[in-house]
Amino acid sequence: MNPSPYASTHAGSSSLAGTHTLPSYLNADHLGPWGIYLQQVDRVIPYLGSLARWAETLKRPKRALIVDIPIQLDNGTVAHFEGYRVQHNTSRGPGKGGVRFHQDVTLSEVMALSAWMSIKNAAVNVPFGGAKGGIRVDPKTLSIGELERVTRRYTSEIGIIIGPSKDIPAPDVNTNEKIMAWMMDTYSMNEGATATGVVTGKPIDLGGSLGRREATGRGVFTVGCEAAKRIGLDIPSARIAVQGFGNVGGIAAKLFAQAGSRVVAVQDHSGTIYQESGLDVSALLNHVARTGGVHGFAAAQALIDDQFWDVPCDILIPAALEGQITAANAHRIQAKMIIEGANGPTTPQADDILEDRHILVLPDVIANAGGVTVSYFEWVQDFSSFFWTEDEINARLVRIMQDAFGAIWQVAQDHHVSLRTATFIVACKRILHSREMRGLYP
């Protein structure tokens, strides 16, 4: 019998379901996103106690849907795109996770992102499971009409598994409020009734929540401040380097700058800029809004992209895509602390290097959980048709993030493990305890 591609991360590793060899599409140097997640799970199994008998649950997505998305282009030809929606685990509630439009989207990536959503939701203790979606497309190559047709056809194709009490998509890479509005409208038309709760991250006038757009960046800032207190890092004098300058990196940079930190370096798809005295974050945000990237910002020095990893800083915030910090560059990072704004930006090998160098890593599964926390608030508000003020939302978000981080920090201290492993301990125990209490049907 062929080994399960979901079951193990390295040749000869042992799991509760038996011994598995390395899947053919993985190797020790290039695990891929799903392989990285599986390795993270393997590291936490020794801390699960009696719940370890259910650990294989974490290594197998509950449901994975691959869909064909045919649309008519503006020139009259028909184009086909491949889309995915993966529900990793729904033991604690409906699936929850974003939808990304990117030319490099793969099933392995979406599976991993859905699994990290399971961990993330459990880590902050919101009643959701993990899910994720994506379309392999470069949205910049589509007209607005083509983009709408892709979105609506994708929504129709995955409509059989999503819904306000089944699986709730949200924005992710290259998706936004407008795309969520199209998704909500398409699902509602197919259902014959308006269903605002089918997606989050919607426009405010369609049931969206105040504070949602800034929530992930605010969460990054909040856990960064909590960790800084514990390691004696002074935020007002800290130097910050940010990779990715969108809703996550840009908002986090703005909040750190408002707290007195110097944002000394920023990298995005357009280039890398540096200013030792500190960048004017508000002016840079305006520049990015006008031009689409940080390249060409006058009040900064341009760097070669690879030099970003050598910038002297106190806090590094990778807020772009996964797999950015690897064994090849982890030894060059000069930060005291890394706050993962992106999903999966650090490989397990890089994690080990950073730990050996005593660089504190605040893992994605807690650091960027602010977005899904406010998505939960939006979902609750849609169900009740009663909406909170932005101050109320921000206060609730900060309290949840602080409490969650405090509990994870304590687990890390008790077990002498990294914050990533501690977060997985907390989250996996919650998921598997729910699995155990629910039992198996039939």
What's the structural blueprint in terms of helices and strands?
Layout: E1 14-15, E2 18-19, H1 32-44, E3 63-72, E4 78-89, E5 95-102, H2 107-123, E6 129-136, H3 144-158, E7 167-171, H4 177-191, H5 212-231, E8 239-243, H6 249-258, E9 262-268, E10 271-274, H7 281-291, E11 301-303, E12 315-318, E13 337-339, H8 348-356, E14 360-362, H9 364-367, H10 370-384, H11 390-415, H12 419-438
Parallel strand pairs: 5-6, 5-7, 8-9, 8-12, 12-13, 13-14
Antiparallel strand pairs: 1-2, 3-4, 4-6, 9-10, 10-11
Helix pairs in contact: 1-2, 1-12, 2-12, 3-4, 5-6, 5-10, 5-11, 10-11, 11-12
Description of the molecule:
With 442 residues, the protein is α/β, with parallel strands linked by helices. Helix content is 40%, strand content 17%. It has helices at 32-44, 107-123, 144-158, 177-191, 212-231, 249-258, 281-291, 348-356, 364-367, 370-384, 390-415, 419-438; strands spanning 14-15, 18-19, 63-72, 78-89, 95-102, 129-136, 167-171, 239-243, 262-268, 271-274, 301-303, 315-318, 337-339, 360-362. The strands form three sheets. Strands 11-10-9-8-12-13-14 form a seven-stranded mixed beta sheet, with helices on both faces. A five-stranded mixed beta sheet has the order 3-4-6-5-7. The chain has a two-stranded antiparallel ribbon with strand order 1-2. The longest helix has 26 residues, at 390-415.
